[in-house]
Amino acid sequence: MMDSFDTFLQNKPLYYKEIDHERVHIAYGQLKSHIKHPRTVHIVGTNGKGSTGRMIAHLAYKSGLKVGHFSSPHILKFNERIWLNGRDSTDEVLEVAHQRLFGILGKALSESLSYFEYTTLLAFIVFENCDLMVLEAGLGGEFDATNVCDKALSVITPIGIDHQAFLGESIEAIAGTKIRSIQKKVLLAPQVYDEVLEVAKEITEVKGAKLYLSKCPSERVTQLGVIAEERSWGNYLVENASVALQALDILDISYQIDDLRTLELFGRFYPLTKNIRIDVGHNPLAAKAIEKALDKKVVLIYNSLDDKDYEAVLQTLKPKVKHVEIIPIDSQRATTLSEIEKAIQKVGIDYSYFEGKIDKNEQYLVFGSFYVVEEFLNRMQKKSDVPK
Predict the structure, then answer these.
(1) Domain 5-262 classification at class level
(2) For residue 327, which of 348, 358, 296, 288 has the smallest C-alpha distance?
(3) What is the model's pLDDT at position 86?
(4) CATH code that applies to domain 270-385
(5) Which positions carry the signal peptide feature in this UniProt record (predicted)?
(6) Which of 178, 187, 158 is nearest to 285 (CA)?
(7) Most-buried pick from 29, 44, 163, 169 (CB within 10 A)?
(8) In angstroms, how far is CA 242 from the centroid of its own chain?
(9) Is the dihedral of CA 29, 33, 35, 40 positive or negative?
(10) Mean pLDDT highest for which of 10-14, 189-193, 330-334?
């Protein structure tokens, strides 16, 4: 008797010290002949993957295509990771896909796969009747579970220093690990580090792939600027939208820019209320984009996972922060509260602990990770506000 999808997933560890890069290829090899394979866009990078991928998926879906978007992690419910034709997958769809996948792979192989590997293959089953599948890589690129299938296009979003233990210590090493996942065509988003472009040129040359550099015609900049103002987007979301449009152009998929007006980017510089924004960013690159996007000083509701450079994040946000309210989070990877306190003191910002009170005369930014946003939403009992 096999477990239900929920139970099966709960029994999988989320993190592994050592990762076996072969097993997902073995599992995909077993699955491949049982499913259909839509055109696939692979989104790889450090920041902006979720919003860029969702923009591509949303616009393609609005143009009349059947579209799936696989992203991670989720904020409140796993279903957010497997978005199909304009909405999160239902429990029933996930359960049916699980029964089928488990049946094809068998118990031993299904149980050996990591949480991310199994759910990536599950997405392939959910999306098999789509015209387009948008796949967001997890940590890396080259060795990521999402890198098992053929891609029509790879989109490389801004690359920064993150997950060094897995990806390498330098920008060149991290960029190499990510960009080596490309096949025939690659679109490079605007980058903070020049080294990323050099690495992209080298790898595309070796692979004989076509490299497209991000460009945005001035009339498009104007159109996106109007939408961004209406939707209260920061400038980095305009850049991500521009990359998404260019990706659709390369794929020869038609779209209406105005359809971005109906896009919900929950958790991405998202205005939860008039005075609270939530953002799932968690590294210095994300902090830089948010600092630029904020037009007034905020109370920062914050915490961090222990593998992040939280001191650099706080230093970057400091010009726009009145004071910090630390929100404890429940994760085995959370930094100890005393370490967060030490970093805030070192950067020189006043702080206290979040007690669930929101002053209507203050502006708030909830930032630091998916866990921080989830904890805040649960505390505020705002679940009814989450766009379904």
Answers:
(1) alpha beta
(2) 358
(3) 97
(4) 3.90.190.20
(5) none
(6) 158
(7) 44
(8) 17
(9) positive
(10) 189-193
